[in-house]
Design brief:
This protein has 259 residues and is an alpha/beta fold. The chain has ten helices and nine strands. The strands form two sheets. Strands 1-2-3-4-6-9 form a six-stranded mixed β-sheet, sandwiched between helices. Strands 5-7-8 form a three-stranded mixed β-sheet. Strand 2, helix 1 and strand 3 form a beta-alpha-beta unit. It is globular and about 55 Å long.
């Protein structure tokens, strides 16, 4: 079974994470396949908008640490985001120049919140539950939450960054993290509907508007990325990170010592 489904729907490229047996955790294969799909979207003149969603019960429980953490700790970001692909989180690498719409449901943890903030439109099912969990696991967000949660959601965003508390779809909508809330099971249909509206507009104008919006936050993005890059190795190889991973596997509360 393929870990990511990629389908064309007229001017749309539908990108579906397909690891329901693992709660749609993003491992290295998923990240690189999605990155490549963003490249396909960018390079194909017939495609105008991408739609990202998850198969099964959850959008994604987050990052598959066993697959990706060693590369992150070694500083080998180029081994995670392919040189010929686009960064789905628009943080360390080049972003796709065409709009992305996200359809979320069920668990929406860590990297999926960052994926939403790097996208242009997000639709959430009523059952969606969000959590930026990294600090509770002894690590730091790697996809832009360190600056976008505060800049997009204000002080409450900083609260969720530092507390790792969960919040529901209504709170996400109130804060502006998602554009709409829909009944369970309708999130993909509504995301496709909105993507088709965007695709019906002038493509050059859409891409220029998107580029201008991104340019406005580039200085903040680059500054945050530098801090995360400089501290990444120390954080990922810390005793706290190891304790966080062990506690997660053992399903217990971690005991952090600041080491």
């Amino acid at each position: 079974m393929t870990k990511v489904t990629i389908d064309r729907d007229g001017q749309l490229l539908l990108i579906g994470v397909n690891r329901p047996e693992a709660n749609n955790l993003w491992d290295l294969d998923v990240i690189q396949t999605v990155s490549g799909a963003y490249k396909t979207l960018a390079d194909d003149d017939e495609l105008r908008v991408g739609v990202v969603y998850g198969h099964g019960k959850h959008f994604t429980a987050g990052l598959d640490l066993l697959s990706v953490a060693p590369l992150v700790a070694s500083g080998a970001v180029d081994s995670i985001i392919p040189a010929d692909g686009y960064d789905p989180w628009d943080f360390f690498g080049e972003s796709c120049p065409k709009p992305i719409v996200v359809a979320a449901h069920g668990a929406c943890n860590t990297l999926s919140i960052e994926l939403i903030m790097a996208a242009q439109i997000a639709v959430a099912a009523e059952d969606t539950r969000f959590a930026q969990l990294e600090v509770a696991r002894g690590i730091v967000p790697l996809g832009g939450a360190t600056f976008r949660l505060l800049s997009r959601l204000g002080p409450v965003g900083m609260r969720y960054l530092l507390t790792a508390e969960r919040f529901d779809a209504q709170e996400a909508y109130r804060l502006g993290l998602v554009s709409e809330i829909v009944p369970i099971g309708q999130q993909l249909d509504r995301a496709v509907e909105l993507a088709k509206v965007v695709a019906g507009n002038a493509p050059i104008a859409v891409r220029t508007a998107l580029a201008a919006a991104r340019a406005a936050e580039r200085a903040a993005r680059d500054a945050a990325a530098k801090v995360v890059t400089d501290a990444r190795n120390a954080v990922m190889s810390s005793a706290d990170a190891m304790e966080g991973a062990r506690a997660f596997v053992e399903r217990r509360t971690p005991v952090f010592k600041g080491e």
